[in-house]
Write a structure and sequence with these properties.
- There is one protein chain.
- It is elongated and about 70 Å long.
- The chain is an all-alpha fold and 119 residues long.
- 56% of the residues lie in helices and 0% in strands.
- The protein contains 6 helices and no strands.
- The protein folds into 2 domains: 29 residues; 82 residues, Cytochrome Bc1 Complex, Chain D, domain 2, CATH 1.10.760.10.
- Bound molecules: heme C (HEC).
- The site of heme C has 24 residues, from helix 4, helix 5 and helix 6.
Length: 119
């Protein structure tokens, strides 16, 4: 009887360990995501504007990037570099969603450069 209780506890512990393994990112994974490297792209303003409209950036940041749920981005280039914007859009930050699964890194880099030029 006690054997059964013991193996039951063991199974629960294993399931818990497996769940933890998937929910807690590994140390290496965190380090890798810390600063994603921005690919080199030639800035294309038309494509950048199309991306921010298609990706609902404007639904949070405003159709003129004047701000809303998210902060005003009209002069974001005077605060953040293209690399910093690239990191925020890729990884997300607070209420800002991550776009790494929705956009190609080249598209994020293009939008980041376009925004970084807004000073
Ligand atoms: C669901 C709403 C939402 C969407 C969609 C969204 N953002 Fe954001 N964004 C936010 C919020 C909220 C913040 C502030 C995050 C913080 O600082 O905690 C933010 C912050 C940012 C920042 C940093 C601004 C600063 O002053 O630090 C940039 C740059 C940015 N967003 C760009 C974008 C781009 C580009 C897109 C589309 C690809 C986008 N956002 C889509 C809500 C959103």
């Amino acid at each position: 009887m006690q054997k059964w209780i013991f193996s039951g506890v063991l199974v629960i512990a294993c399931v818990f360990a497996i769940v933890l393994m998937f929910t807690l990112p590994g140390k290496e994974q965190v380090a890798e995501q810390e600063k994603p490297t921005m690919p080199e792209v030639t800035m294309d303003a038309t494509a950048a504007e199309a991306t921010i409209k298609a990706q609902s950036c404007i639904s949070c940041h405003g159709d003129q990037l004047q701000g809303g749920v998210g902060p005003n981005l009209q002069k974001i280039g005077s605060q953040l570099s293209a690399e910093e914007i690239y990191t925020i859009v890729t990884k997300g930050k607070g209420g800002m969603p991550s776009f790494k699964d929705k956009l190609k890194s080249e598209e994020i880099a293009n939008v980041a450069q376009w925004l970084a030029a807004k000073k």
